[in-house]
Amino acid sequence: MQAKIPETATRKEKILFALRAIVFAVLLAALLSYTLYVLVPKYDYGICSITNLYQQEDDTVDVLVLGTSLAYGGVNTNVLWEEYGIAAYNLCGAEQPYWISYYYLQEALKTQHPQVIVLDAKPATYPDDYSRRGRAFLGTTGIKDPIIRLRALLSSVAPENYASFVAGFPQLHSYYPDVTLDNFAYPPNNGGRGFDWQGYIESTETEVHSKPSLVWSSTKKNVNPRQVEYFRKTVELAQRENIPVMVIGIPNPDYANDHMYYNTLWEVADEYGVPHVNYNDPTNRYGLLYSSCFSDWQHLNVKGSVIFSRKLGADLKEMFPLPDRRLDEGYDAWRNGSEAWYETYPEYLPEKPEEGAPA
C-alpha cells in the first residue's frame, strides 16, 4: 500500500511548482522580448530616440520634443545647446502619432522632468486611426517598461490585430533575412553617433521649392478623433506634472495642406491654455528660403534646421525661464554631442565677437 504524501509536503511542492512556473514564464517573456528587439530594425528614426533617452543622466533634459520626422529633422538640438545653452532632446520618430507621444512621455517622466514640452502639430494632419505595421513596432519596441510598451502597441493597431502584433513574430517574419550582428546590440549605436546624440537627424539634401501660393486663413479641417484624444491626454499628463507645453507647426513646403488642420488643433490647445506657434506663418519671417532650406516637400535640411532652431531657441528663451546649462555639471552629453556635430558642420558655428569687442 502506497504511503500518502503529508499535506504539508504537498503544499510545499505546489509552492515550488508555482515558483518554477513563474521563473520559467519570466525567462520566456524576456527571451521573446529580446528576440523581437533583435528583429526590429535599429533605425535612428525608429527605436533609437527612446532607447538612447535611457543613456542620459536623470533630470538633465530641460526641453523634451515629441513629434514626427519634421521635429527630429527640424529641431537642431546642437544649435539650441551651442547658442542658447538649452538642453533639448528629440524623443521623436517617423510619422509618430499622438498615441506614441503620449506613451513616450509616460516613459520619459520616469527619469526626466523637463521644464518645457515642445509638441509637434504635424500628427493633426494624419487621417488614419492606427499606425502602419512597421511604424507600430518602430515606435514601441524600444520602450523599457513592458506595460507601457504593450499599451503603446495596442493603441497603434486595430483590436482584431492585437494577437498577431502582441506575439510579434507573425508580423516581423519578413525582417529575418536582414538581421545582422548589429541587431543584437543593446542599446543600438544610433547610426554611429554614440550616446551623446540628442535625437536630431540631419538631412544634407537640398530640394528647390517655390513659396506655396496660399491665402492664409482661419479655415479649419477636421482632425482624426484619435489624434485629438491622445493630444488631450498628452497635454493633460504634462499639466498634471506641472510641465508647460508649447505646440508648434514646423516649417515645410506643404503647409498649404497642413495649416487648416493646425487651426483646428489650436482650438483644442486653447482649451488648456497651451501656447502654439505655426512657424509657417508668412508674417513670421526669420530667414528661411524655400530655394535652399528644405531637403524635400516636408523636411528641413541642415541649413534650414539651423535657421529654424535659432528662431525656436529665441522664442523658448522668451516664453519660458529656461536655464543656460553650458557651464553646468552633468551635461557632458550635450557638450560632446554638439562639439562632434560642429566638427562636421563648422560653417554653422555662430560668429563670436572679436577679442575686445562688446559681446
Kindly describe this structure.
The chain is of the alpha/beta class. Helix content is 44%, strand content 6%. The protein is built from 13 helices and 5 strands. It has helices spanning 7-39, 48-53, 69-74, 77-84, 98-108, 133-140, 146-156, 162-167, 169-172, 225-240, 255-271, 302-319, 332-344, and strands spanning 63-67, 88-92, 116-120, 245-249, 276-278. A 5-stranded parallel beta sheet has the order 2-1-3-4-5, sandwiched between helices. It is globular. The termini are far apart.
Beta strand %: 5-15%
- CA(first)-CA(last) distance: 99 Å
Strand order in the largest sheet? 2-1-3-4-5
Helix content: 40-55%
Main sheet overview: 5 strands, parallel
Order of helices and strands: HHEHHEHEHHHHHEHEHH
Overall shape: globular
Average pLDDT works out at 88
Total helix count? Answer: 13
* Sheet/helix structural class: alpha/beta
Strands, count: 5
Radius of gyration from CA coordinates:
23 Å
Unreliable spans are none
Describe the secondary structure blueprint for this structure.
Elements: H1 7-39, H2 48-53, E1 63-67, H3 69-74, H4 77-84, E2 88-92, H5 98-108, E3 116-120, H6 133-140, H7 146-156, H8 162-167, H9 169-172, H10 225-240, E4 245-249, H11 255-271, E5 276-278, H12 302-319, H13 332-344
Parallel strand pairs: 1-2, 1-3, 3-4, 4-5
Helix pairs in contact: 4-12, 4-13, 5-7, 5-10, 6-7
In short:
The protein has 359 residues and is of the alpha/beta class. 44% of the residues lie in helices and 6% in strands.
